[in-house]
């Protein structure tokens, strides 16, 4: 949310001094880069099994790197006189959407943990068939929230 705030401030202050805009940009950058390690950690902590976790980690890093290609398309030279409002608005929108998805995911993981906590012995045994190969699908697995 810090990065989203930074981008919104950049839009609001587009006609302000360079120093103020630079401070707003610093807020956006701090929010962007400080979010990556916890996001990757949370994601990988909720994937069971070494192979599955490795592939999932590679996938999230790869998808994250697509942002570099998109960034070159949304920050156009023709938007420079207006303060790159379109690029900042797209970034703020994507970050706000990501925040909603993260909150939804947190809710769903908490709900799944509670469901697993309330399994009867028979339900647990039925869901545990397959043993360790189930990875994060095993009823004894708990998601980090």
Give a nutshell description of this structure.
The protein has 145 residues and is an all-alpha fold. 72% of the residues lie in helices and 0% in strands. Helix 1 (2-12) packs antiparallel against helix 2, helix 1 packs antiparallel against helix 4 (85-117) and helix 2 (18-45) runs antiparallel to helix 3.
How would you sum up this structure, described in words?
With 145 residues, the chain is an all-alpha fold. The chain has one domain. The protein has helices at 2-12, 18-45, 50-74, 85-117, 121-127. Helix 1 packs antiparallel against helix 4 (85-117). The longest helix is centred in the C-terminal third of the chain and has 33 residues, at 85-117. It is elongated, with a radius of gyration of 21 Å. Keywords: Membrane, Signal, Transmembrane, Transmembrane helix, Transport. The chain crosses the membrane at residues 20-43, 55-75, 87-109. Residues 1-18 form the signal peptide. This is Major facilitator superfamily (MFS) profile domain-containing protein.
Summary keywords:
145 residues; mainly alpha
Number of H- or I-type helical stretches: 5
Distance between the termini: 18 Å
Number of domains: 1
Give the fraction of residues assigned to helices. Answer: over 70%
| Annotation, overall tally of beta strands | 0
What about the largest sheet?
Answer: none
């Amino acid at each position: 949310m810090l990065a989203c705030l930074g981008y919104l401030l950049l839009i609001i202050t587009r006609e302000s001094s360079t120093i103020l805009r630079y401070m707003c940009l610093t807020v956006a950058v701090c929010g962007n880069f400080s979010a990556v390690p916890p996001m990757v950690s949370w994601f990988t902590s909720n994937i069971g099994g070494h192979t599955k976790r490795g592939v999932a980690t590679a996938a999230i890093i790869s998808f994250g790197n697509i942002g570099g290609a998109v960034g070159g398309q949304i920050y156009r030279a023709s938007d420079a006189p207006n303060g790159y409002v379109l690029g900042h608005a797209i970034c703020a929108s994507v970050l706000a959407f990501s925040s909603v998805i993260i909150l939804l995911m947190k809710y769903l993981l908490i709900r799944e943990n509670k469901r697993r906590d309330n399994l009867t012995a028979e339900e647990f045994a039925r869901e545990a068939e397959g043993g360790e190969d189930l990875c994060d699908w095993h009823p004894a697995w708990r998601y980090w929230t």
